[in-house]
Amino acid sequence: MVSPLLALCRHPIVQAPMAGGASAPQLVAAVSEAGGLGSLAAGYKTADGMYQEIKQVRGLTSRPFGVNLFMPQPACADPAAVEVYRNQLAGEATWYETELGDTDAKTDDGYEAKLAILRDDPVPLVSFTFGCPTRQELQALARVGTTTVVTVTTPEEALAAQAVGADAVCVQGIEAGGHQGTHRDNPETDGAGIGLLSLITQVREAVQLPVIAAGGLMRGAQIAAVLAAGADLAQLGTAFLVTPESGAQPLHKQAMTDPRFVRTELTRAFSGRPARGLVNRFVREHGPYAPAAYPQIHYLTADLRKAAAKTGDPQAMALWAGQGHRLARQLPAGELVEVLVAELDEAKAVFAGRDAGGAA
């Protein structure tokens, strides 16, 4: 029997939900139309903004797609630490002729209102990041036919997701671009994440749930590798970020293969939560001093990042990227899915040939 998760797409390719605009309805629809599974990012949007994008996707494709929600965050940020960081960024605000943002914004990202919409007007899949929903919330989605996925970064988080009745887990390795989807933000564990291949195995041995593998995947052969390691689907974000359908800033797209940006690292500089991005001036100068304060720091730096983009300066933008960013290919999203599937089939044939040779 095919699991509900695998029935959502013809090919084992999921387009990662990238908050901040990259996961535009056009990208989601193009990936789903090509046989993958497109994903909208509801993070940082209003409930109505999310609903309008859902309607846009439905107008572009009849294929299944997913919506990703950010879990509400505990109000545990140290106001004094946030204020110190605000003072540190005063010079940046002056330089880019903008104001620093309000850090008293709500920390729930409109979660309840978004969940209510998704119960009343269901989508095929809903995934959760930055925590684990309740059993009651997942049961309510199950009753309307929605498949549920929880992002996990450790076997313990996967066990928590299984315990509340999630249909699947998205296993996020340390290689992944953007925010680490840890259930609790603990500064003492910064940089201690687990590599994807090892994490897949550990999660597989801990839970009996389908696995979506995410983290640095850019080629079909890498998809074949994670499938061989035990994943059911592979999720790619950075690979789709540079496509024409992506809503990412042009400067962000260009930076993926810009020789000035040679590496990525996990930083709290832009949001107060560990997120992997290209190392630019802002990361170097402010990353070491950014407090653990999400989403307060995200809102503090939001206008600053927009102002930098408006002036054409990528050195103060959050250039989220996975470790494989230099492998980015500027292809239309549907064509990229086709290329990845061809590479996957080729890799499978190579693996099969080696197995046959060994058996002989």
UniProtKB/TrEMBL annotation:
Q: Please name the SUPFAM superfamilies in this protein's record.
A: Inosine monophosphate dehydrogenase (IMPDH)
Q: Does the keyword Cell membrane apply?
A: no
Note the Pfam families from the entry.
NMO
- List the GO biological process terms: response to toxic substance
InterPro entries cross-referenced by the UniProt entry: Aldolase_TIM, NMO
> Gene3D superfamilies from the entry?
Aldolase class I (3.20.20.70)
The chemistry this enzyme catalyses reads: 3 propionate 3-nitronate + 3 O2 + H2O = 3 3-oxopropanoate + 2 nitrate + nitrite + H2O2 + 3 H(+)
Q: Does the keyword Oxidoreductase apply?
A: yes
Recorded GO molecular functions are: nitronate monooxygenase activity; nucleotide binding
Identify the cofactor(s). FMN
Residue spans crossing the bilayer: none
Q: Which family does it belong to?
A: Belongs to the nitronate monooxygenase family. NMO class I subfamily.
Q: What does this protein do?
A: Nitronate monooxygenase that uses molecular oxygen to catalyze the oxidative denitrification of alkyl nitronates. Acts on propionate 3-nitronate (P3N), the presumed physiological substrate. Probably functions in the detoxification of P3N, a metabolic poison produced by plants and fungi as a defense mechanism.
Q: What is this protein called?
A: Probable nitronate monooxygenase
State the species of origin.
Streptomyces spectabilis
